[in-house]
Amino acid sequence: MRLERRALLRAGSLLGLATITGGRARAQTPRRGGVLVVAADTEPRNLNPAMVASNGVFYVASKVIEPLAEMAYGEPGLTPRLALAFEGSKDGRSVTLRLRPNVRFHDGKPFSSADVAWSALELWKKHQNLGRVVFKDLEAVDTPDPLTAILRFATPTPLQLVRNALPALTAVVPRHLYEGTDPLANPHNQKLVGTGPFRFVEYRPGQYYRLERNPDYWDAPRPWLDGIVFRVLPDRGAIAAALESGEIRLAAFSAVPLADMQRLAKVPGIAVIDKGYEGITYQLTVEINHRRKELADLRVRRAIAHAIDPNFVVERIFLGYAKPSTGPVPRFDTRFYTAEVPTYTYDPKRAEALLDEAGLRRGADGVRFTVELLPAPWFEQTRQMGDYLRQALKAVGIEAKLVVKDPAGHQKAVYTDHAFDLAIGSPVYRNDPAISTTILYQGGLPPGVPFSNQYGWADSAMDDLIARAARELDPTARSELYRRFQRLAAEHLPLIPVVEFTFLTVASTSVRGVADNPRWATSHWADTWLEA
Amino acid sequence: MARGLIGSPEPVATSGAEANTPLPRHPALLLARRRLAQAPIVLLIVITGAFLLLEAAPGDAVDAYLAGLGGDAGLVAELRRRWGLDRSGPTRFLLYLAGLATGDLGWSVSFGRPVLAVIVERLPITLVLAGAATLLAFALGTGLGLLAGARPGGPLDRLLSATALLLNAVPTFWLGLLLVLVFAVRLRWLPSAGIETIGAGHTGLARLLDIARHLVLPTLTLGLVYAALYLRLLRAGMVEAWRSDYVRAARAKGIPRRRLVLRHVARNALLPVVTMLGLQSATLVGGSVVVESVFAVPGLGRLAAEAVTQRDVPLLLGIVIVSAVLVVLVNLVIDLLYARLDPRVELAARTP
After folding, report:
1. Does the distance separating the beta carbons of A450 and B57 come in below 8 Å?
2. How far is B121 from chain A (nearest CA, A)?
3. Which of A261, A424, B59, B345 is the most exposed place for a label (fewest CB within 10 A)?
4. What is residue B242's DSSP assignment?
């Protein structure tokens, strides 16, 4: 057992060495031409990123429909796409966007502020899963000229928040194809029309999406590729085989099982790339139902935190491609992240002492109490974490019964019916705590809201802090409020963030210009090219 | 799980219910008529069963849609209203049946398209794959089974039986991936997945050949697994036939071995193989989730699995109906074939 573990760890670190650091490895002149064939494993029913902000949608759609700005490494963290500049008013009631000139949609019609206004008011605000929260107070969008759009908010809205929302929430679709239609039933939610580097050609359900180069792209001579084909490959083993046979050249989002990566990393001409996902860092969390009286006791939650060894999770479940979490904000977002929070080191003895203190002594069978544990089915790792947590809890006298459900079943059990004691979740952090994260801590949300605080936990100090940060216009003060948010979260442990992780891309070394921004897999790929 | 729903039709006992109506003369026609009369009842039972199973599964199409996406209470309510999920289960079922009566298979919420259109797109490839795999399995299985059963216990029999047992024992996805590794990754003779070359723009014969090339490995995978089954069945039947009195008698009469094997031993052993052929091809028209996933074939099996995951009730019911109809038709053909092979069946049909 011991030997085996050591061997595995060594294999993990070897894999780490084989990893290259993305597209910046060698500077070389990009070459025009070639169709890049990549793997896809989901086929979203609505592919319109202005309406559905999810990585599955962005993966394909971000090449066709562009946001106002994209994330970038280093300062200032953004590169302009459809917007060249933006400016907030002092009172936080408006944001003025200066738009890129000479941009055309793929149907030849010019892009203008009217398209931004329409997308913002009719799609982001009304239909988009993330936009409905961030843009809920968006009252109007003024369009004094075709290249200026002024977002007007009913209540003061931090410019920092709007800025952070630009990459994931602000895809612009042509107003002339949507106006006067039912947006949810619009055929262009599948046959995408945008301003992006690639035009949508065809979608064969169960087979592929095909995009071709947009010759009129505003960033000429980009894009370098003649086209992109997303091949739907539902079987992960088949993805690895297709990479090896050269039928596909890239698989993103860790589509190849981590265990297979060790083998693939040794195949000449194939590289494993661990960059390009920092902007969409996920966490593995233990979600807790506070309606269960044992778990409502803070000592018990802290005991559970002490019972978990994050390093084991990093090394064994993620083979090194993860980091222990300290709180709800991942380390990459240095604007908000703080390490100065209460921490709970792996200490089963301390866990047992806390449980004893809480009056939950081991029974004759060595069991203190029994819980139902529901690992989310989204990732291989959420399921494995379920197995690990069951063992870790058993060691301190908590018996966990694993209940595995499919996505719809899990969704209903945890976020609507609250029929769980513990669950393994995997929230994604989207560039600002107010976009993706505070919803996990905010009290008083109605049942049925997916990926929100359905834990039966509410704390007025926390709610107050979340509300203040959402209104705070000064970025420094706002960041400080979110650091307090992290401290409060770590202190009360309404849920336990265990590790943060990003994905891996496996690609042929002939694919260049990979992972050159923190949301690369879900961004435009205008800079990606193929070696001859 | 999807395959269980659609792939294993309940055998319906043949009764003499229609004995009083005037009977067509030919026993085959009689059989056909009886089978077709049962079809609507079978269908209704299957539809109701599938509906109840999906209703019993936790979560609905909106839960499935929002899993991995998120949203707020307003969005959840709006989607539920739009997709008609704010109505009660019985109401939705009755509405569905009413639509069905007018020939409307309903609307797939997960594809945002009519159910019929979604299924029609997937059906041909499933039929081609199922047909090719069945042919291969039957030809290979009976051919080798005949060789094995001709001299039970001989070296050839031992080799073939062991191979068949091995093929039967390995998981289908493993066999599929193994074939991919050999023929697509190492030798690069065949594509590893998909059903045609993307963007090649082939038409006519070139396109057919391209599709055929893509279907070699999935057909081989499915075909080998079922061939092993037929081989073992036929061989077992032949072993038994060798021990029977009529074979002993025929032997004693000095009938040449070749004729003995073909006319007396194999022909009788063929009956269970044909029965199995009916059952297996019925399963196959429902699609094979595993093979379709490994080889990325956009067939009915994968569609059914998606329909279950997405809680797309109308789509799943549509697939159930289409496969049930196909199953009834396939079984009808098998019954007719059976009647030809075994005179006793014909006799039984004549005297209800």
Report:
1. no
2. 9
3. B345
4. H
- Closest to A106 (Cα-Cα) out of A203, A177, A35: A177
CA distances from A172 to A80, A101, A111, A146, A168 (A): 14, 15, 9, 14, 11
Q: Which fold has domain B123-349?
A: MetI-like fold (1.10.3720)
| Angle (CA) A284 B310 B317, round 5° | 160
Residue of B nearest to A427 (CA): B68
DSSP annotation of A45 reads: S
Spell out where A242-288 has E strands: 250-251, 270-273, 282-288
For the record, the structure tokens of B200 come out as 């090649």
CB count in 10 Å sphere of residue A251: 24
Looking at CA atoms only, how far is residue A451 from chain B in angstroms? 6
Q: Is B18 exposed, middle or buried (0-12, 13-18, 19+ CB in 10 A)?
A: middle
Six-digit token string for B173:
């996805």
Q: Do B193 and A208 lie within an 8 Å CB cutoff?
A: no
The CA distance from A405 to A412, in Å, is 10
Q: What is the 3 state secondary structure string of A70-96?
A: EECCCCCCEEECCEEEEEECCCCCEEE
Q: Residue B67 and residue A378: Cβ atoms within 8 Å?
A: yes
| Beta partners for residue A98, in sequence order | A85, A148
Per-residue confidence in pLDDT tens, chain A, 532 aa: 333 333 333 333 333 333 333 334 445 789 999 999 999 988 888 999 999 999 999 999 999 999 999 999 988 899 999 999 999 999 999 999 999 999 999 999 999 999 999 999 999 999 999 999 899 999 999 999 999 999 999 999 999 999 999 999 999 999 999 999 999 889 999 999 999 999 999 999 999 999 999 999 999 999 999 999 999 998 888 899 999 999 999 999 999 888 788 888 888 999 999 999 999 999 999 999 999 999 999 999 999 999 999 999 999 999 999 999 999 999 999 999 999 999 999 999 999 999 999 999 999 999 999 999 999 999 989 999 999 999 999 999 999 999 999 999 999 999 999 999 999 999 999 999 999 999 999 999 988 888 999 999 999 999 999 999 999 999 999 999 999 999 999 999 999 999 999 999 999 999 999 999 999 999 999 999 999 8
How far is B10 from chain A, CA to nearest CA, in Å? 27
Q: Is pLDDT above 90 for B243?
A: no
Residue type, B83: W
User: Mutate which of A449, A452, A453 to test chain B, going by most B C-beta atoms within 10 A?
Assistant: A449
Other Cβ atoms less than 10 A from the Cβ of A105: the count is: 23
In terms of Cα–Cα distance, which of B319, B318, B327 is closest to B280? B327
How far is B101 from A382, CA to CA, in rounded Å? 45
Residues of A with Cβ-Cβ distance to B171 under 8 angstroms: none
Please state, in angstroms and rounded to a whole number, the distance separating the CA atoms of residues A64 and A171: 10
| Cα–Cα distance measured from residue A55 to residue B305, given in angstroms and rounded to the nearest whole number | 22
Q: Report the complex ipTM.
A: 0.82
Cα-trace Rg, chain A: 24
Q: Is the peptide bond before A221 cis (omega within 30 degrees of 0)?
A: yes
The answer to whether A524 and A219 are in contact (CB under 8 A) is: no
Task: Tell me the angle at which helices B172-179 and B204-242 cross, rounded to the nearest 10 degrees.
Answer: 130
CB A385 within 8 A of CB A424: yes
Cβ contact, residue pair A45, B110, below 8 Å: yes
Cite the residue boundaries of each domain of chain B with CATH code 1.10.3720.10.
123-349
Candidates A204, A238, A451; nearest CB to B193: A238
Six token digits for residue A448: 């049925």
